[in-house]
Structures are given as C-alpha cells and as structure tokens.
C-alpha cells in the first residue's frame, strides 16, 4: 500500500487520538503516506481529506476526544453514499482505510470493503467494551476510572447524609462499564441490561442494607438496565422511595463526562498497539478485520464476527458485589 486514510466514526472515546497517532506514525515509519478524514464517513463523502505528517499528531497522546472529529452519517448507510465516498478516496490515491470506531462503524466498513477495492481494517474504540474479539476496547478503561472516581465523590456525600444513591452510567446494550465500575467503587447493587433484576429483589435488598445499618448505599444502574425504559433512573428511584419513604434517595446521572478526559495509561498502551497492528495487518494484505488484543496477543477478527458475536459480561462479578457489600 502507498497511501492510507484514517478516520474516527460513531461515538467518541478517550484514546482515539492515541490510535490516530499510532496509525499515522507506523505508516510513515514504513514509508506509507497518510491522510486523515474529517468527521468519519461524512468527511469521505464531503471530500474532506487532510495530509497527516508525524508532527500533526504531536502532543495528542494525552488528549481525550478525537482531533479528526467524529460524526454519524446517514448517507453512508446507502450504496450511493458509499460510492461517492469511494470515488473521492480513489481520486486521492487512497488504497487502504483504517476505521476507528464501534459496532456501527464496522458495519459500514464491512459493506464498504465488500463493495469496493479499498481494503479496510477496524480498530475498536468505544467506552462500552461491547465488541467481540478483543478483551478491551479503547476508551473503556478510561471511562471505568472516570466512573469510579465520580462514585467515590458521591459516596462521600452519601455517607455524610446516610443516603441511597442511584447512579446512572452509560451502557444501553452492555453492562461492562456498570459491572466493573460497580465492583471498583464498592457498589451495593448493580443493574445491567444482561440480567433481569426483579424490582422486588432490589427493594428487598435495599431494605436489608438499611437494616444492616449501612451509612450509605450506591446502586449503579446501566442506561439499558431493566426497568429503565419506563421513565429512566428517576422513575426507578421514585418507585423505590414510594415503597420505602424512610429511605433518603438521590439520583445522579453521570452522562457525557464518562466519554471525556485524558486516556488512562492502559488505554494509551492498548491504542498504540492496536494502531500499529492495524497498519501491519493492511501491509500483510488483511482486510475486513478488526484488530484486537486477547490474552495479550494481537488478534484479527473478521468484521462479521466482531459485529454479530456477543461478548459476555462476567456475571460472577454480580455475585462478588453481593458478597462484598454486606
Ligand atoms: P458506533 O460506531 O459508535 O457504533 P454508529 O452506530 O453511530 O456508531 O455508527 C457510526 C456510523 O457508521 C453511522 O453514522 C453510519 O455512517 C455508519 N453505519 C452504521 N451502521 C451502518 C450500516 N448498517 N451500514 C452502513 N453504514 C453504517
């Protein structure tokens, strides 16, 4: 390959910049020219390509977000849209593509690389960690640390007032972030989309904690947990409060802060390794694969599997939370 394009797409995640840096510098190291595409697939369709040199990625290793910006792009979902993207890329002399993003971005990348002769490799970047074929996705560890430090602060005020806090964390379809941040912050209960927690069990559980003279309780609730569709975390807390008016219940929605901040050391190393692996994979004539790390080894997972197969959360952690919060 002579000229490679790199883009970030879909939801942003801390560490995407680190991956961009690694892709750009690995390519240059091997004598490959690099261009950055602005705002994901939208930039391909709009013809927004920028040459990237080594110095263009200076000082971004510690910055959250993505210097290439990211976007959702409806047009790329259509064959016509992807054809425009292809024509523009071809006119630039681009003969390989690296897509940094999540599940949706890889669906687009899969179609694009099947339809046209531009080999494409994906790098998993999402705080949700919900991609099969890699132990961790870029941004997940940083988001975990962000949630744990936020909950530590909530715990201080909760304990001072003997309060129960429902803390909503990101995760519409996957409970990885909720589960591990729950263990890491000593949560009393964790509600995730993968497991049905009957309302009665939650009530009973909170009642037990109060009887056990706990001075505070933290319930971590993933956005997509059961019972969240009907009015969200506020409604859930309200329901519990109606049944237990003696409990002093508060709600905290962590929101977008979970996506920001300096990438953790773990994510920096992961993104550096995956950025290099993506370029090497393209040089080895691989395509339509996501690069990942499993048991400390680089893996190449076909887009199909990365998208379709479900990565399972470690349900032992739910039991662990129960044991450790008595
Ligand atoms: P993420 O990559 O974080 O999962 P999205 O699901 O929003 O984010 O996907 C990002 C972009 O990828 C979409 O805006 C769209 O341009 C493209 N995309 C997603 N799904 C498809 C699909 N089925 N076909 C073609 N392109 C898609």
Helix-and-strand structural type:
alpha/beta
Largest sheet, spatial ordering of strands: 3-2-1-4-5-10-11
- Straight-line N-to-C gap: 58 Å
Oligomer: single chain
- On the 0 to 100 scale, the average pLDDT is 95
Count, helices: 11
Low-confidence stretches: none
Helix and strand sequence? EHEHEHEHEHEHEHEHEHEEHH
Bound molecules: adenosine-5'-diphosphate
Q: Major β-sheet, in short? A: 7 strands, mixed
Give me the count of strands.
Answer: 11
The percentage of residues in β strands lies in 15-25%
Shape: elongated
Helix content range: 40-55%
EC number: 2.7.1.11
InterPro entries: ATP_PFK, ATP_PFK_prok-type, PFKA_ATP_prok, Phosphofructokinase_CS, Phosphofructokinase_dom, PKF_sf
Main location: cytoplasm
Protein name: ATP-dependent 6-phosphofructokinase
Would you spell out the secondary-structure blueprint of this structure?
Elements: E1 3-8, H1 16-29, E2 33-37, H2 41-46, E3 49-51, H3 79-91, E4 96-101, H4 103-115, E5 120-124, H5 140-161, E6 164-169, H6 176-184, E7 189-191, H7 199-211, E8 217-222, H8 232-243, E9 249-253, H9 265-283, E10 289-294, E11 297-302, H10 303-308, H11 316-324
Parallel strand pairs: 1-2, 1-4, 4-5, 5-10, 6-8, 6-9, 7-8
Antiparallel strand pairs: 2-3, 10-11
Helix pairs in contact: 1-9, 5-6, 6-11
What are the key terms here?
42% helix; elongated; metal ion binding; 7-stranded mixed β-sheet; alpha/beta; 4-stranded parallel β-sheet; binds adenosine-5'-diphosphate; 11 helices; fructose-6-phosphate binding; 326 residues; identical protein binding; metal-binding
